[in-house]
Amino acid sequence: MAIRKTLVQALAASAMANLVHAHAIVAPAGQLDARTHPSPTCDPSQTVTQTETTTVTSWTALLTITLGGPGTKTVTETTTTTTTASPTFTLPSCPTQCPPPPSCNNLGFDWAYYNSSARNTDTTYSSFHPDFFKNTAPVYVGTTSYVGGLYGQSSTEMTGPIYDSSRVSFALDYFALNHHAYIYACERGTYTVDIPYANDAVYLWTGAKAYSGWTDANADAKALYDQPDHIAGRASFRFSVPAGTYVPVRFFYGQAQYGGGFSFNVTAPSGQVIVSDWETFSPYVVRYSCDGTTAPAFPAFGRET
Ligand SMILES: *[C@@H]1O[C@H](CO)[C@@H](O)[C@H](O)[C@H]1NC(C)=O
Ligand SMILES: *[C@@H]1O[C@H](CO)[C@@H](O)[C@H](O)[C@H]1NC(C)=O
């Protein structure tokens, strides 16, 4: 009996293990743990509960006991056991619709601050040349969980922090900011980069040239402040990619005289905004892939190609 009991227990345990496994396929643990982002189709008031029942039947434990002594008797015992398990699990109310890539302390944008002497005197801020900074030593480098901001907009605000930098005092006139990261396109389709506000300039590159080969001339979009007419720049760019792609993205902000700022958003095909000045560490924006080769880290600022 002890033997059979052990067999049945083992079976029940294995049935439970299978259920745990099935559960894992429906909602991988990594996904459950990931930060969730409300999306247009997500109703946070809804709780999804899934119940899965597995019935294990017709298990036959065959036990043959041979008793010694005179008149040897053989007892054959056959047992059929039915085990039913009904685990219940609840998914988070707004599950991430598109699984983000693995993360390994790699979220956010790399960014760098450079001194810049370029004054804006014309309709296209033609004195500002982002590619000049490829081999210019940055004043500061960091990682940011969001992008965009307003700088030096009041006459008293001559210096201040930028992003979540440990350094709190940057000159807020005559500087440039370089940013790069990969957008992880877990959705196939068209991604939209919006630069709704540029004062004085934002240049954008996407794809391989954003990693290496970017020049003023081959930018995918330029949003330029028209100084004589005092009209802020704006621009938009779309790119279509297959699912599961890491897309290099670089953008340069240039600030001339008299304060300024910019905003920069990236929207996924589903409508979810994955980069903006309020999106904090999107799981879809990484500085490199965890394997280090699918999406390698960018070259160091100041030694770019
Ligand atoms: C940047 O400009 C500041 C203020 O003018 C200056 O103190 C600093 O040395 C400059 N840094 C570099 C790397 O040029
Ligand atoms: C960009 O994001 C800002 C919030 O940071 C939002 O106000 C703005 O509407 C967004 N623009 C676009 C075009 O999505």
From TrEMBL:
Signal peptide: 1-22
Entry-linked InterPro entries: GLEYA_adhesin_domain, PA14/GLEYA
One Pfam family from the record: GLEYA
Keywords: Ribonucleoprotein, Ribosomal protein, Signal
Record-given protein name: Ribosomal protein S2
A cellular-component GO term for this protein: ribosome
Domain PA14: residue ranges: 118-286
Transmembrane segments: none
Native species: Trichoderma parareesei (Filamentous fungus)
Entry keyword Metal-binding: no
